[in-house]
Specification:
Blueprint (H helix, E strand, L loop, with lengths): L1 E10 L2 E11 L4 E5 L6 H8 L7 E6 L2 E2 L4 H6 L1 E4 L11 H11 L4 H15 L14 H13 L5 E5 L7 H14 L4 E5 L3 H7 L2 E6 L2 E6 L1 H5 L8 E6 L4 H4 L8 E9 L2 E8 L8 E2 L2 E2 H11 L4 E6 L4 H8 L2 H15 L1
Parallel strand pairs: 3-8, 3-9, 6-7, 7-8
Antiparallel strand pairs: 1-2, 1-4, 4-5, 9-10, 11-13, 11-16, 12-13, 14-15
């Protein structure tokens, strides 16, 4: 449905997107991740035909976005960053305008508007000027226009930005429902969104792809993957916790005081899980037995699936590296 091949965008001497290649099939929800300035929005603008690439190609439903722009754009529902709209229009007037732009007329247009309004729960604000709506409702107006023509491809920049938790839940359910017969790209800074709705995640940094896989595959790259975390009451010294390092599969341990508690994280060797056998017990059970034998008061004990935010930070440090480089130059000077 979406094929990106060597897509590159330069602004003068600056390369914002550097030979990115990937594809998205029908039924996939691709989470498009990266720090600010990584090239996410620029990539999405090229895929939707709003920016011309310096090199490479993008095809949507078989249409080249440069040589066959309008045909490609007819297949796309696009929710840009900020969801711009005409503020003096009401949501109903705006959606009727979008319907005309999308060549929907008469009963077909009204049915499309009714379905989009129901999906985004805009019934209560249809006659209010868009400028008077909350950020969340304005975002929902933008979402409604993007799905109005029931496109086979959806490209969304921060679709749940500004929504409260209940609204986020409903929008995520809507996206999952629509994903069965669409190809969807979602650019987001909300990592929990990746696990909630994405079948695949692609991370870019400095305009290049640094990771591509399912959420589970990315999480498995975390140093916390299959670690065991134990929280006990009181201040526990490293020396008194040393016994935990002798358990089978444990390769290292971190001890972190946290207020009136101590948090101990046991890191396992690659391939060892928190439920793997440690002697005659699972590793979690073995840790619990050590805690009982030493009369520690346990506040929490669990196996870690991994931490996507830690993987993200380890792969995308361009903003931090840039600060460090600038500081180093000052120190040298």
């Amino acid at each position: 449905m979406i094929v990106i091949d060597g897509l590159t965008k330069r602004f003068g001497p600056f390369t914002a997107v550097n030979h990115i290649s990937f594809s998205v099939a029908r039924g996939e929800v691709l989470g498009f991740l990266g720090p600010n300035g990584a090239g996410k929005s620029t990539t999405m603008k090229m895929v939707t035909g709003f920016l011309s690439p310096s090199e490479g190609a993008a095809r949507v439903c078989g249409h080249d976005v440069v040589s066959d722009t309008l045909a490609a754009q007819r297949t796309i529902g696009y929710l840009p960053e900020g969801a711009p709209a005409y503020g003096d229009m009401t949501p109903l007037a705006f959606l009727r305008f979008i319907a005309r732009v999308r060549a929907l007329k008469g009963v077909e247009a009204e049915r499309a508007i009714e379905a989009a309004v129901a999906a985004t729960e805009l019934q209560g604000v249809l006659e209010q000027p868009i400028d008077t709506l909350s950020k969340g409702f304005r975002r929902r107006v933008g979402l409604a226009q993007s799905i109005l023509h029931n496109p086979p491809v959806l490209i969304m920049d921060e679709p749940t930005d500004g929504l409260d938790p209940n609204q986020k839940h409903e929008v995520r359910k809507l996206i999952k429902r629509m994903s069965a017969d669409k190809a969807i790209i979602i650019s987001t800074h909300i990592l929990e969104e990746v696990d909630a709705i994405c079948s695949r995640a692609l991370i870019i940094d400095r305009g290049q792809v640094v990771a591509d896989g399912t959420p589970a595959e990315l999480i498995s790259r975390s140093r916390y993957h299959n670690a065991v975390t134990l929280t006990v009451e009181g201040q526990l010294t490293v020396q008194s916790a040393e016994i935990l390092k002798t358990l089978p599969g444990v390769v290292s341990m971190e001890v972190t005081p946290r207020g009136s508690e101590t948090v101990l994280t046991l890191f396992t060797s690659r391939g060892t899980s928190a439920t793997a056998v440690a002697g005659d017990l699972t590793l979690v059970d073995a840790v619990a037995r050590v805690a009982r034998e030493n009369n520690w008061i346990v506040r929490a004990l669990y196996g870690e699936p991994g931490r996507l935010d830690e993987v993200f930070r380890s792969l995308t440090r361009s903003d931090i590296d840039g600060i460090d480089a600038n500081q180093s130059e000052k120190n040298v000077a």
